[in-house]
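Example 3.
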Amino acid sequence: MVAVTPLLTTRRLSKSFGGLRAVHLVDFTLPEGQIRALIGPNGAGKTTFVGLLCGRLSADDGEIRFLGEDVTRLPAHQRIRRGMAYTFQITSIFARLTLLENVALALRRRLHGKSAQVRAEAMRALEQVGLAGRAAQIAGDLSYGHQRLLEIAMGLAQAPRLLILDEPTQGLADSEIDDFKALIGAVAGQTTILLIEHNMDVVMQTAQFITVMDGGQVLAEGTPEAVKANAAVQAAYLGTA
Amino acid sequence: MSETAKSLAFHGAVVALLVALHFALPAYHHGNLARIMVLAVYAMGFNVLFGYSGLLSLGHAMFFAAGMYGLGLPMQHLGLAAAPALLCGVLAALALGAAVGFLALRTTGVAFMIVTLMFSQAVFLTILYFGEYTRGDEGFVIAQASRAIAGVDLSDSANRYFAALAIFAVGLAVTLRLIHTPFGRVLIAIRENEERTRMLGYDVFAHKLGAVVASAALSGLSGAAYALLFGYAGATFASVQYSIFPLLWVLLGGAGTIIGPFIGTVFMFYLIDISSGLTSAYMLIAGAVLVALTLFARQGLVGELRRRVMPWLP
Amino acid sequence: MDFGPYLFLASLEGAVTAAVLALTAVGLSLVFGVMRVVNVAHGEFFMLGAVVAWWVASYAGGHPAIGFALALLIAPIVTGAVAAVADFLVLKRLDYDPERTIVATIGLLYIIQQTVLMTYGPEARPVEAPFNVRIYFPWFGYSTYKFFVIGAAVAILLGVWLLMTRTRFGLVMRATQLDRETALAFAIPVDRVYALVFGLGAALAALAAVLIVPIQQAHYLMGGDPLLLSFIVVIIGGLGSLAGTIVAAVLVGMSDGIISVFFSPTLAKIIATLLVALVLVFRPQGLFGKRAL
């Protein structure tokens, strides 16, 4: 059998905040092309973990390998350049710029500023999330749900090898959640997705594989069915043993 | 008409108006306007950093002074000709910008303001310390005979006016071009949301450093041109007051607008010119305007104009 | 004079500088600690204190001690009131946004300085010391008033410390410093606390100035140096840390006195400003403090 290098691995990855072990000795492997959900109760360390992956936080200890390369000490922008994209848990867009410019900023680094091509690809990314008609609007004027979609469009526009989505459906209406699920279905296969999500419906319908975190550690991993049946997972979520 | 075409027409019209004013203005205002156009380039340089990149420096006088002395000292002591001295002034400011930016950009917000203030103060004190060469507060006059480029006598008022206008047009063109380049767009993105920009894969530090260097170079160009056209270099131009002036001009005219720095410089120059005729405490006006601007008009004059009438103004 | 006595004299002068500097810097530090406001106009409050002291002393007449005692009372009150009004009219309306507040206090700096220039004029004027007994060391005579300055500064700083740790107002201040939102939720009138703290900070600078005017004359441009030195002290001591501020004031005051005996004062200032910049760049929590700017 040929050993395939996974897209991303971590070994004994750890991060503490003043004595609190937010992430502790996490070993994690993500194969290319997978849609992986990261779940767990509040305070489980999910956001800290993905923050370590993309370089918003620096690890105290352990190692992160992306595309076979040790990226543990690289600054965030270097990791993004190697093919990661990150969408923020709390919407973080350029509120006073147009939608088109928001997406164009996500594209220009890759396309080296060829303006006609940037414009065409930006429109395509906006079309993908259904916001093409609003390209000239100021992003801050959008509804919250549309801002979340814009954020995803900015993630997709980077054509990443790994797209990290931190609670993308938080605060969305049911119809918008349906649109989101369809969107994930549509981009599946083009990119690897790591998804932090609280909405179990979304997780069960989109994820191919699930990692459960609790207390800064990986509690369980498996297919959606296996995780659903796992007693430890139920205990962590429902407080029943 | 597209927004780009409108903007080009507008700024072209401003330059044309300034050409026309050469023939219309009485001598006193003609001289003032030459000064204002040169100082406006300083304001434009400050605006690249403050208005477009969101970085507030309280020490820009060091870059203005670097240009001024970078031109003045070699002309005075080494007999360098005006044209290479002008280049030397810009390069001095550029190098200082790179060094200061490299250190100061490790800080943000209030710390960045204080660090730039302190570096600038150190430059000011250094000029005083080497009074033997710089003649300190008193300053030195650059000999009229040496103030010529390609045979054009820059101490002649008409020549000086057009030289000032040329420098002004360069400043205008450079800033207008800058904000439409990918580099400039990233600066605006950093101003709007630094963390987001970093997480789109941009090297925020390198872009900010580029902004400091560009801003310092424009400020240095202004300082060098000022010394060359008006024949004087003095330590006052390195004092805190000259770090506060561009802030005033830009706030008054409109931060993050291309023409705002010029409009702000015109207004403030005449406000101080008129009030210094009435009292020696003319900086009172500057203080009052500063407080009023932070309280009531954060957008400045051109910012308000853009908001109400001309949304296409860059 | 030999080197030993020379150093002794420099140390005495340094101690006077340190005492006055500690008072001024604690005022700046208090305002930053509680309100997170960098007050660039602080030096002008110092200057205002000195000018008010001159006015009071010249109207009081009689024995110089009467005028001085009145000035010690009136100058900080007047200066504190001016500061509180400025807080109410300007800083409060800016919602204490750090960058806009700095710009506004630069404006205040010019307004105060230039108003004094218009009314008090450009002259430097002395205030007579309340007493002028000299004590004689084997090598030189020294004014006892300077010892009084040191003693008074220590007493006032002790008073500030008691105010912060032993009174209800101190408790309220510290609560506001820790968390503005929670303080509001506990019905602490944050607006009034801020105005009082800003006034208190200015009053401390004014007190320092009253103590120094018998040695150094009152002049409308005298605020620049205390501002710079206070910044140096507060940044080296760690912003918002009162103990660190006092330690740094003693350090800077003493070394300023001693260094300017041996080096050119301009060179000393160049080194000091670069030191502040580099401390902020490489050790933003100060040499003694824990919190970054």
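Residues 3-238 of chain B form one domain. The first helix of chain B runs from residue 3 to 24.
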